[in-house]
Amino acid sequence: MTTAIIGIGNIGTRVVTNLVRGGEKVIAADRTLDRAEQLASELGSNVTVMPVAQAIQQADVIILAIYFDAEQQLIAEYAAALDGKIVVDPSNPIGPDGKGGFNKIIPADQSSGQIIAALLPAGARFVKAFGTLTAKSLGEAAWRAPDLAALFYATDDQDAGDVVAKLIEASGYAPVPIGGADQSIRIEVGGDLHEVGGLGKPVSAQEAAAKI
Ligand SMILES: NC(=O)c1ccc[n+]([C@@H]2O[C@H](COP(=O)([O-])OP(=O)(O)OC[C@H]3O[C@@H](n4cnc5c(N)ncnc54)[C@H](OP(=O)(O)O)[C@@H]3O)[C@@H](O)[C@H]2O)c1
């Protein structure tokens, strides 16, 4: 399985760094390649940098570490190429509120995960994951001792979920499934299992189990 991370910003940088630290080889892609190339120069030969179209074509698992609106545009542009791929969505449907904070940008009862899942081509295999902690926590809590911190995921596709669970493990976290894609809202900002607006901190798999 080849994994591509699209978007080398706050989250994408941490996902790439954790996976490489765990021994994975990854593709890093971005709108411009300077950040991806800088990261590859820091992390070494397990990071291959390539443009978005080529990354989507070559990877089996595509982690869309870009904002919700950009994700929607990317899916429209690359729909055919995404067919058959495992598509991982870490998005939180939030935008600046003009007062230094953030607001939810979709109705309160909706999740960006379900909206993204519905936009994907029929053969794409949707998994909601890698967005349940802030980028800062995702970097700091990897390989936490004595108990690994939990990273939640949601999917309707058991096999795709197993693949993503292995990536979560390789990143220094305990994978915790919470159910189907319709549960995505619980692991987005404001959801009861998200760090922000929910749990307030990274938790262990045992602590997580009590909340699910
Ligand atoms: N930051 C967090 O703490 C956090 C936590 C959990 C989940 N998330 C979610 O993770 C996603 C990414 O957030 P972030 O904070 O990492 O954002 P970010 O720092 O702005 O990084 C996004 C990266 O993606 C690039 N990009 C944008 N559109 C693209 C496209 N169409 N194709 C390829 N690359 C593109 C951006 O390039 P440019 O700079 O050129 O725009 C930037 O390098 C969001 O959905 C967010 O809700 C974030």
Tell me what the structure shows:
With 212 residues, this protein is an alpha/beta fold. The protein has one domain (3-209): 3-Layer(aba) Sandwich (Rossmann fold). It is 38% helix and 19% strand. It has 10 helices and 10 strands. It has an 8-stranded mixed β-sheet, with helices on both faces. The chain has a two-stranded antiparallel ribbon with strand order 6-7. Strand 1, helix 1 and strand 2 (26-29) form a beta-alpha-beta unit. The longest helix has 13 residues, at 158-170. The chain is globular. The model has no long low-confidence stretch (mean pLDDT 97). Residues 6-12, 30-32, 35, 52, 65-68, 70, 74, 90-92, 131, 134-135 line the site of NADP nicotinamide-adenine-dinucleotide phosphate. The site of NADP nicotinamide-adenine-dinucleotide phosphate (NAP) has 24 residues, from helix 1 and helix 4.
Helix-strand layout with pairing:
Blueprint (H helix, E strand, L loop, with lengths): L2 E4 L3 H12 L4 E4 L4 H10 L3 E3 L2 H7 L2 E4 L3 H10 L1 H4 L3 E4 L4 E3 L5 E3 L7 H8 L5 E5 L5 H6 L9 E6 L2 H13 L3 E4 L17 H5 L5 H5 L3
Parallel strand pairs: 1-2, 1-4, 2-3, 4-5, 5-8, 9-10
Antiparallel strand pairs: 6-7, 8-9
NADP nicotinamide-adenine-dinucleotide phosphate binds next to α1 and α4.
